[in-house]
């Protein structure tokens, strides 16, 4: 595993992780030193260490697995330096530009097939980047993609108006819920929304304790408005319908952060989408769930890749 800093076009430092296939996989492959390439895109508030386990799993299967921290979170700086725990954004277009730049470099230095996988906000950004032809992939995997927000039951149209009004009032950099670090009672609520795995949740909290500089908590009203705007951009007629590559979507009916119904609606618009929904056994972070769910998800992903890109 290597972690490095990659400067973007404007010099902004992006933290990047790469894990090569394990030595056993290399020995079995023989003289052909090329390996399939996987780029994992994490969600809002995530950081490289959180999904290192998943990247290591794919490296063990013979993939060259990579990821990076989105600009403004993890180890890739902050948009509001004096509020380091604030998850802020004003427009998802900047992240789409970063993804396009990073993806072009990744494709240029790695071997085909090229597969991209995104969780939550990362799944949203991946789908939009693919649909808008900003990036190319031989196949894509979306894990609980953020295609609609639960938002405590507030309908999309109303939530969008509220977020817009708060930004118009000059509160775009105000967090939309209390700082988790200061309210211990919120920890259990957060855990229930993310995972049933006490061990994986505890490992995340330990990482936040040891590496507080990579953690963020509440999103800002600016981020929320930008999220609604980007979700609306994906709703444009004909956009998803023209995206004709194999796509596997894994979601959960029990998701308390993103809308399962929005995932279903998007899947119906995608020509080659395969969809599976878990039930109450899975919370939002499917690849950080208890082993039963997580192992099932990994098996479904492995079967999808064998059926699509690895069978070519």
Strand-helix topology:
Blueprint: E1 2-7, E2 13-19, H1 23-29, E3 37-41, H2 52-60, E4 64-68, H3 93-109, E5 114-119, H4 121-131, E6 139-143, H5 156-168, H6 186-194, H7 198-210, H8 221-234, E7 247-252, H9 260-269, E8 273-278, H10 291-307
Parallel strand pairs: 3-4, 3-5, 5-6, 6-7, 7-8
Antiparallel strand pairs: 1-2, 2-4
Helix pairs in contact: 3-4, 4-8, 5-8
Descriptive account of the structure:
The chain has helices at residues 23-29, 52-60, 93-109, 121-131, 156-168, 186-194, 198-210, 221-234, 260-269, 291-307, and strands spanning 2-7, 13-19, 37-41, 64-68, 114-119, 139-143, 247-252, 273-278. It has one domain (2-311): Rossmann fold (3-Layer(aba) Sandwich). α3 packs across α4, α4 crosses α8 and α5 crosses α8. The model has no long low-confidence stretch (mean pLDDT 94). It is built from ten helices and eight strands. The longest helix has 17 residues, at 93-109. With 312 residues, the chain is of the alpha/beta class. The chain is globular. Helices cover 38% and strands 15% of the residues. The chain has an eight-stranded mixed β-sheet, with helices on both faces. α9 (260-269) links the parallel β7 and β8 (273-278). The two termini are 28 Å apart.
């Amino acid at each position: 595993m290597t972690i490095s800093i990659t400067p973007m076009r404007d010099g902004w430092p992006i933290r990047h992780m790469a894990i090569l296939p394990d030595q056993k996989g290399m020995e079995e492959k023989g003289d052909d030193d090329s390996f399939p390439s996987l780029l994992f895109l994490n969600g809002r508030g995530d950081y490289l260490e959180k999904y290192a386990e998943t990247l290591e799993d794919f490296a063990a299967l013979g993939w060259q697995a990579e990821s990076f921290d989105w600009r403004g979170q993890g180890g890739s700086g902050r948009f509001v330096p004096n509020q380091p725990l604030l998850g802020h954004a004003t427009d998802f277009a900047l992240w789409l530009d970063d993804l396009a730049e990073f993806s072009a470099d990744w494709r240029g230095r790695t071997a085909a097939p090229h597969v991209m996988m995104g969780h939550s906000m990362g799944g949203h950004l991946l789908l939009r980047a693919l649909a808008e032809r900003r990036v190319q992939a031989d196949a894509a995997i979306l894990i609980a993609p953020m295609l609609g927000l639960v938002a405590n039951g507030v309908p999309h149209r109303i939530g969008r108006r509220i977020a817009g009004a708060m930004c118009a009032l000059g509160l775009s950099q105000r967090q939309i819920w209390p700082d988790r670090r200061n309210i211990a009672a919120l920890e259990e609520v957060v855990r229930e929304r993310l995972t049933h795995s006490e061990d994986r949740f505890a490992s995340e909290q330990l990482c936040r304790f040891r590496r507080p500089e990579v953690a963020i908590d509440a999103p800002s009203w600016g981020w929320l408005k930008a999220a609604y705007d980007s979700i609306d951009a994906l709703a444009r007629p004909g956009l998803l319908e023209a995206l004709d590559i194999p796509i596997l979507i894994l979601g959960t009916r029990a998701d308390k952060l993103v809308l399962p119904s929005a995932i279903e609606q998007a899947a119906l618009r995608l020509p080659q989408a395969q969809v599976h929904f878990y039930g109450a056994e899975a919370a939002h972070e499917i690849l950080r769930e208890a082993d039963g769910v997580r192992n099932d998800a990994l098996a479904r992903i492995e079967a999808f890749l064998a059926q699509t890109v690895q069978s070519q």
